C-alpha cells in the first residue's frame, strides 16, 4: 500500500519539461515568459532619446503657448466662443507636444514585446474568468511566494533607482543653488541637462536589472510549466488516441479491408494455391493494367476462405506451390506481378483460358 502511494506521488510530481503542445496551448492563452522591467527600460530609453532629440522643438512649443496665453488670451473677453477657441488651440499645441512621446511609447511597447516573445495576438486574457474575482484565489496570489518575490524586487528597484537619482542631485547641488542667480533660459537648460543625466543613469540601471528579472521570469515560467509523467502520458493519449481505442479502430479497418478483398475474389481469373497454406487470386484486365495483378491473398485460414469463395463462384483453382509462395511474399494486394513471374503466371492463365473454352 505504501509503495503504491509512493508511486502515485512520484507520478504526480512535476519533473518533466513542458511539451511543445503544452507550450503552444499556454501561448494561445497569453501565458509567456516576459519581464515588465524590459518594457519599462526600453520605453524610458526611447522616450529620453526623443526628449534629447526634440527637446528644443518641445521647448519652443511650450514657450510659444505661454507667451500667447499671457499676451493675447489674457486680454480676451470671457465668452463661449473665446473659451472654445482657447480650448481648441491649446489642445492642438498640446497634441504637437505629446505626439512624439506617445508615438515612441507605442513603438517601444511593440518592440519590447517582440524582443521577448515574438508576435502574439490573443483575446484569451480578456475573457471573463470568475476565478480571477474569487477572494480565496486572490488571497492566495497576494500571499504567495511569487508575490513576496515581486515585492522585494520592487523595493530593491525603488532603492536602487532612488540612490542613483539622489547621487545625481547631490553631485549637481551647488549648480542647482546657483540657478537662483541665472536667467530663465539658463535655468531651464541646467535642469534639462540634469534631468537627462538622471534619466539615462536610471535607464542604464533599469536595463541592468531587467536582464536579471527576465532571467528569473524565464526560470519561474519554466518551473510552472513543468509536467508530471502522468500529464505527459495523458497528453500523448489525447494526441494519439487511447491505445485500446486505436487498436479497435485498426481492427475495424483490417476487417473492412478484408471484406473488400474477399468481395474481389469472385472477379479473379484464377486462384493459385499451395494447396493448403497459401492462396493468391489473380486477375488480368487489359483495360486496367498491362500485366496481371493480385486481387486477394491469404495464408492458412484466410487462404481457406479465399478458396471457398472461389469454389462458390466457379473461379478456377490451380495448385502451384513455388509460385503461390513467391507471389505471396513479393506482391501486395492491388499490385501487378513482377516481370520475373510473367512466364509462370502466363502459363497458368493460358491453362485457365483453355479450360474455360472446353467448358463453354
Automatic annotation (TrEMBL):
GO annotation, cellular component aspect: plasma membrane
Main location: membrane
Protein location: Cell membrane
Record keyword Transmembrane helix present: yes
One Pfam family from the record: Bac_export_2
Family annotation (InterPro entries): FlhB, T3SS_substrate_exporter, T3SS_substrate_exporter_C
Mode of membrane association: Multi-pass membrane protein
Regions crossing the membrane: 38-58, 97-122, 154-172, 192-216
GO-annotated biological processes: bacterial-type flagellum assembly; protein secretion
Keyword set, alphabetical order: Bacterial flagellum biogenesis, Bacterial flagellum protein export, Cell membrane, Cell projection, Cilium, Flagellum, Membrane, Protein transport, Transmembrane, Transmembrane helix, Transport
Function recorded in the entry: Required for formation of the rod structure in the basal body of the flagellar apparatus. Together with FliI and FliH, may constitute the export apparatus of flagellin.
PANTHER family (UniProt xref): FLAGELLAR BIOSYNTHETIC PROTEIN FLHB
Family per similarity comment: Belongs to the type III secretion exporter family.
Protein name (record): Flagellar biosynthetic protein FlhB
Source organism of this protein record: Oceanobacillus limi
Classification lineage: Bacteria, Bacillati, Bacillota, Bacilli, Bacillales
Gene name linked to the record: flhB
